[in-house]
Amino acid sequence: MNTKELPPHFKQIHRLFLLITIVLVACFIGRIMFLYGFDPNLLQLTTLFIICLLATGAAWVWLWNRRIANYLQTLDAAIERAMHDLPPLTNYEETALSSMEHKLKRYIGIAKTNERIIQTEKNKIKELISDISHQTKTPLSNIMVFSQLMEEMPGLEENVRHYVQLIQAQSYKLDWLIQSLIKLSRLETGMISLQQMEAKPLIQTLTKALSQVYAQAENKQITINIDCGTHILACHDVKWTSEALFNLLENAVKYTPHNGQISILAVTNEMFTCIQLTDTGLGIPSEEIPHIFKRFYRGKQARDFEGVGIGLFLSREIITAQGGHIKVSSEAGKGTTFSVFLPKR
Question: Do β-strands 325-331 and 335-343 pair in parallel, antiparallel, or remain unpaired?
């Protein structure tokens, strides 16, 4: 590091002191000439004195610049050695730099220890999630299969058939909840990484998400309008983004009454591609909007519908992990608009 690499404010200070020195010298010369008139010998002596003074000041500034530059260079080397776990540069000297270097080494050591602890906890969570997934999959699948077989049995009493259908419904709900929690836990612990984060046509992702809610919308005679050109691109992971959009669309279908309408509009600007999902459903009261993305939160009106309050939380986590964000605007009784912003590149 040389003096040219010093921070800009050092140069500003030097210029300020140089300006002050020039002003003082000019005042001094003017005062001398005013008192004693123009005397060549006196002027020569004064000029020599001023040159020596300026040279001494310049040498002093140069030495300080060199000292500061060397100090910063040593500090940079000490930080670099501490980051790579090399022996200390100052060798336990009784200086401020030595104290700073050893404090930095302790801090980096603590940070690495915490990183190892976090990684160990992630591995434990990974094993726990795998165990939960493995241990619940078989018995839950058996319950669903046996309940389906019971429902198909001839001569089954109507009340028994009703209870079997309830068992089936709750089994599917439990299976969906377990799978959602597993996805969420893997996403939060970094076990699932978003792949192929590149600009791709958005229409394919929207179509994939729509295909999963189309049957439900058709049963309620809900009209779905989509306006997304094939040229509209967004930098996103197709699989996980379609998962996030599916959760939003499922909520729209769920809370929109029969013969309602859902509109999907995709627009693009310089930085983001925005997907607006608007429904004519129940709407969200203004006091509940700040809480709807919380885990397991369900509004007062939503409690009359099936659900556990994890879909919006999962959607926000997925979109945020891709560098995007979600906004919501709603009015109770008039519908809701979710705006999903995804980066263009």
Answer: antiparallel
* Ramachandran angles phi, psi of 235, nearest 5°: -85, 105
> What DSSP state is assigned to residue 88?
P
Q: How confident is the model at residue 249 (pLDDT cuts 50, 70, 90)?
A: very high
Coil, strand, or helix at residue 336?
A: strand
Q: Which of 77, 133, 132, 69 has the alpha carbon at shortest distance from 100?
A: 77
333 burial (CB, 10 Å; 0-12 / 13-18 / 19+) is exposed
DSSP symbol at 61: H
- pTM given for the model: 0.57
Q: Which residues contact 272 (CB under 8 A, 6 or more apart)?
A: 324, 341, 342, 343, 344
Give phi and psi for 182, each to the nearest 5. Answer: -65, -45
- First-to-last C-alpha distance (Å) of the chain: 36
Angle at 199 between CA 268 and CA 197, to 5 degrees: 125
What does the pLDDT look like over 45-70, one tens digit per residue? 777 877 887 788 778 878 887 888 88
Residues 6+ positions from 10 with CB-CB distance below 8 Å: 65, 68
Rg from Cα positions in the chain: 36
Mean pLDDT of 226-245: 90
What is the length of the chain?
Answer: 345
Give the pLDDT band of residue 334 (cuts 50, 70, 90): confident
Nearest CA among 293, 200, 306 for reference residue 250? 306
Provide, for the chain, the percentages of residues in helix, strand and coil under a 3-state DSSP scheme, each rounded to the nearest 5. 60, 15, 25
